[in-house]
Write a structure and sequence with these properties.
By secondary structure, the protein is mostly helical. The protein has a domain of about 110 residues: 50s Ribosomal Protein L17, Chain: A (Alpha-Beta Complex), CATH 3.90.1030. It contains seven helices and three strands. The protein has a three-stranded antiparallel β-sheet, with helices on one face. A hairpin with a 6-residue loop joins strand 2 and strand 3. The radius of gyration is 47 Å and the shape is elongated. The termini are far apart. Part of the 50S ribosomal subunit. Contacts protein L32.
Length: about 210
């Protein structure tokens, strides 16, 4: 049972393990792309060692340089760390490294990966900026109220238009249809002479 045994010894003695991780830290710092390929187990162990070293480099003092050199044992790596890397990661509060798995090794089928410094991968930084620019942005209260006011104005205009159309339909219904006009004129012509014809006076009947 491995209860509370969080340290991966990597199949090595303590001195061998510490020397290996120190060399891997120096290799990561001095590599051109700030990236090295290794197994996943070694990368996870390396991350616990290199991130505290990078945090110490944010304060460029003699004491912090001595502490870092005590772990790295490489003056070129210490110079690179304090002159260049510390400036690049100055605004990052932690999480300086990234582990990306690349598959299994052919010989022993070990899980492989590469570990890199986050701020030195330009492609992923560009993708992150592009995704952030496409994302939703917070709008001020004024700009948020403008669409609401526009919607209300459109609703009022639509309601007024509907009322006007209803009035026009009522007026058209009251008006006489053009097809019925000749019929009405004919009826009026027949009724008019009868109305205008003089009524003959009745002659008084004489008694015989």
């Amino acid at each position: 049972m491995r209860h509370n045994k969080k340290i991966n010894h990597l199949g090595r003695k303590s001195a061998h393990r510490n020397a290996m991780l120190s060399n891997m830290c120096a290799s990561l710092i001095l590599s051109p792309n700030k990236r090295i390929f290794t197994t996943v187990a070694k990368a996870k162990a390396l991350r616990k060692v290199v991130e505290p070293i990078i945090t110490k480099s944010k304060e460029d003092t003699t004491h912090s340089r001595r502490l870092v050199f005590q772990d790295l044992q490489n003056k070129h790596a210490v110079t690179e760390l304090f002159q260049n890397i510390s400036q690049k990661i100055a605004d990052r509060p932690g999480g300086y490294t990234r582990i990306i798995k690349t598959g299994n090794r052919l010989g022993d089928n070990a899980s492989m990966c590469f570990i890199e410094l986050v701020d030195y991968n330009e492609n992923m930084l560009k993708e992150k900026k592009a995704a952030a620019s496409k994302g939703r942005t917070r709008r001020s209260k004024k700009t948020a109220d403008e669409p609401v006011a526009a919607k209300e104005t459109a609703k009022k205009a639509k309601a007024e238009k509907v009322v006007e159309e209803a009035k026009v339909e009522e007026v058209e219904a009251l008006e006489v249809a053009p097809e019925s006009l000749p019929v009405i004129e004919d009826v009026a012509a027949e009724v008019a002479p009868k109305a205008e014809a003089p009524v003959a006076e009745e002659k008084p009947k004489t008694e015989e």
